[in-house]
Amino acid sequence: MDDVTKSSYAEFLEELIRNIMELKPEKIGVCALLPDGSTLTQYFGGCFHTDKAVMGYTMNQDAIMDVITANIKEIMEAAEEEQDGEDS
User: Fold this and answer.
1) What is 26-59 written as a DSSP string?
2) Of residues 22 and 83, which shows the higher confidence score?
3) Cα separation of 54 and 28, whole Å?
4) How far is Cα 11 from Cα 17, in angstroms, rounded to an integer?
5) Contacting residues for 10 by C-beta, under 8 A, at least 6 apart
6) Quick one: what percent of the chain has pLDDT higher than 70?
């Protein structure tokens, strides 16, 4: 195994483990995109399908917020144009 302390994600893993130790979750899900495009998923704590769905939904919400944040100007302009059209 490679030395994890020399990996580009060492700091990320350190903070993740710190948060896990502080918050003491009962269940953990990890998802990673691999270089070949496939996905690695691993679970701890006997995750049921409902737990996986909640975790996936939470990641989906993060992605949606990223898109909204990146496009907020265009979204606001479109909303204003629609509002102007309704006022006419």
Assistant:
1) S-EEEEEE-TTS-EEEEEES---HHHHHHHHHHH
2) 22
3) 11
4) 10
5) 4
6) 98
Per-residue confidence (pLDDT) for residue 88, from 0 to 100: 60
Domain residues for the domain of 46 are 4-87
Q: How crowded is the C-beta side of 23, counted as CA atoms within 13 Å?
A: 10
Number of domains in the chain: 1
Three-state DSSP state, 79: helix
Residue 16's nearest CA partner among 47, 44, 48 is: 44
pLDDT at 87: 67
Classified as helix, coil or strand, 77 is helix
Confidence at residue 52, expressed as pLDDT on a 0 to 100 scale: 98
Whether the model clears a pTM of 0.85, i.e. scores above it, the answer is no
For residue 26, pLDDT over 80 is answered with yes
Contact 38, 56 (CB under 8 A): no
